[in-house]
Amino acid sequence: MGTEMKRMYKQLLLLWVGSCMLLLAPGTHAQQSALGCVMHLNKPFFVNGETIWYKLYLPPALQQPGAVLRFELLHPGGNSYSSHFQQLNGRQYLQGYFPLSYDQPAAMYHLLVTAKKAGKPEDVLLLNMPVPIYSDVEIPALNNLPAPGQIPRQRPKTPQGLQIRVLPEKTTYSARQRVQVQIEVLDANGRPVDAQASVSVTDASLLPLLSNLPAHLREGPAQLSYQPLDTAMTFQGLLLDSLQQPLFSGTLSAYLPQSQQFFTTYTNGEGAFELRLPRLYGEVSLQFADPHNPYIVVQSRRYISLPTASPLPYSAEIIDYLRYSQERKKIYQLFGQVESPLNPERPAEQVDSLLPDRRIIPANYEPFPDLHTFFREILTPLKLRVDQNGKWVYRMLNVQGRSKSLYADAPVFIVNQYIVRQPELIGQLHFSDIQYIDLFNDYDRLMELFGALGKNGVVMIRSSQDLRFLEEATTVGRVQLHALLPPAAFPAAAQAAAEGPHQPLLRPQVYWNAGLKVEGGRGGLEFWHTDDQGLFHIEVLAQDAHGRMGYARAEYRVGGN
Asked: What contacts 389, CB < 8 A, 6 or more positions away?
């Protein structure tokens, strides 16, 4: 292998395990320094359609039980490709994943880990790790490879404190054979210790220079004094008007349809705001509504300034791997499968339905030609009239107090769990398609349930009708965001697949385990090897309760059956 090729692989290896700076608690002897935390990725580089698996090891200084960390995968320009939150819950580590789309553009991405200081608006940067992601959709020609990227060199440091031995049962296996491995973890004096570890098994042909430790401690962005971290997920946004100009509104309401919860936040003079979110999992739809402005735009105001993006390094070996990746996907397509199945287990979330002041079920009435006619002829708290310009005007009756009166403005309509701020569109709903209409008109309950958004009453409508005509109206103020990461298991080859009918078992990653427990200095694991052949490396990174770490690797070879 040429000198330039070795340099390129070495640079990729230095990206495999990144580290971040963390804060020492007050009173420690080294407040002027920082204690590092380490991220272990399952591979040194990735290809579109694969999954990035990670484990973040945290030092004792970050043992804040409720602290919430944000993980973001950023495009080279600084815009977020994907993100999620995780809560420590007293743990010393966090493990998770980023699925990559099949049309993922090739680039040098960045994986960021941040947290918020409790009671402060600014973020604490814990990690900024370059992640090379390639694409096998359009593979460069060997005679026209892009110029090699310059990846910043980092000084590798061996994690100190623990001694680790990785002992596979054999050194030679057949494809689809069970591999058993014993792991020993000792302290510097040779005494067995309890630890938690991560294990990756990777094709050694991708890592020809693995004799060097593929880990390093990266220097942090700045010296930071110790402070408690925030315990809530937050959305930082910018409120704009219909002309995309910053809008100072003061009060801003937000609605989470999946939990039927309403929140209130406040904008500053530039339209910036922050909303603290409840405990939710996966991708959620969040809809904002300004009580004074029906037409608004909400944007995320998170933008990360990154160093100048480095081009991806290419080589003949990487081109070969991309072609193999392309063929592997075709094989799985023939069998109607995917090579990297991912099945997150989204925890069940209890939703408490809102109890209306009155529920109307249209099926209990004689058919009406439309909703307008219904509300004009049936006595309900929702009143309807035609103004001097020929427009329909909705008002809700305030039933509190001795003298009943109408609220000053139109109520808020929520159709199929989305806010519609244009009441004139409600008349287009077909009466026969409506399952129920919930009316909220008691002022005290309106303030309790909906906040400022409900000051004129709320109407919730559930319709079985195709509401594509409302699509534009219901997207006003809507944003999609990722909340807590649902747990998922690495799709290792199962015994049934290895011993059953011959289906393809070719994977971009043979094995990954981010949750290995070592008790009394001993731990073990087993997995079924895939159809992939050649030399494979088993890498183990471990940490004990005191934050001491260790690294070791072993290898085995796989031939045919």
From this structure: none
